Every structure is written in structure tokens, then in C-alpha cells.
Amino acid sequence: MKKLTLFTLLLTGIMAIAQEEAQDSTKHWTRGGNISFLLNQSTFDNWMAGGENNFSGNLGLNYDFNYKKDDWTWDNKIIAEYGVVKTKNADFEKKTNDRLEFNSVLGKKASEFWYYSFFLNFKTQITKGYEYGTDANGKEIRTEFTDIFSPGYLTFGPGMLWKKSDNLKVNLAPATSKITFVNGDYTSVPGYVDGSYFGV
Length: 200
Hints:
By secondary structure, this protein is mainly beta.
């Protein structure tokens, strides 16, 4: 019941954020986004081998907050997605989607549609991830493998941004760097050996 209440509150809060689409009093910031919530149920009666009853859901958030003043432009986007599926014969529900991502591109105008730019992208997941298997008796088991910020991926670098409008833009960044984060405080990995966990 506590999980259901928390989910309801989270959904209500996100919907309130996503419905906002406005420009502040300074006229330099614009913001807006959308939310999606999908449920699906599949039932197989008198079905040949291969079908299994299941119930699934997916929640998604896509939110933009952008800045523009004189020769400067700064575009930011947050993407969050989470989905699970529970099949009739499985002991655990399994994730079908789990993503938390932040994108940011800062640009200084060089010509009509070109900007000197610097971009940053950070990606991780929202909840624990598991590896699934079976024990000696054939019962399904799971082992924690990942968690939020473990791993996390940070990518950044300078480049050139071609931007004709907010809906048509391309950023070119040939000198890009990437950092992978792994935190043992968030993730328990049995048998972890240096260099074997996401290359870290």
C-alpha cells in the first residue's frame, strides 16, 4: 500500500510539472514538457506454446527548460522513463525500461545558424537492476547488479552547434570525453574483480 501511495504522489507531482508550459517575466527562459503513462494487459487462453499472461506499465517524462538572450543559447532536457512487466509464471516483476538522462548544450553565436558550443550528457538508471537465474531446485532467483548512479555515464565536450530552430538543431563534438561512474555504496556485486564491472 505504501508503494502504491508513493507512486500516486509521484505521478501527481510529475503531471503538475509536465503541464506547465510558460515563459518567465524576463522573457529569456522557456519551459515545457509532457508525461506519458501506459498500461497493458495480455491474456492467452487456449493458446499454443509461446504465450504467457502478463501485465505491464510504463511511465515517461520529457521536460525542456531553455534559455536565449542576445548571442547566447542554452538548451536543457530531462528524460525519465520507467517500465515493468509481471508475467504469470515469474516470481519477480522485471524492468522493461529504466532511464534517467540530462542533456545540456550551451552555445555562443558564430554566424546566422552556427554556434560555438559545449555539451554535457549524464545517464543512469532510477532503480536497482538484477541478473536473473534459477537455483538448484529450479526456482527463479535474482542478484542485484546495478543501481542509481552505479553505473552512471557522463559525456561532455566542445563543438559546433547548427541551430535553425528549437526543433531543428545538430551538435557536432569531435573532441568528446566520457566518464563512467561506479559506486560500491549503491551496488553490491558478488565476485567483483577489478576491471570487470562496466570497465571500471
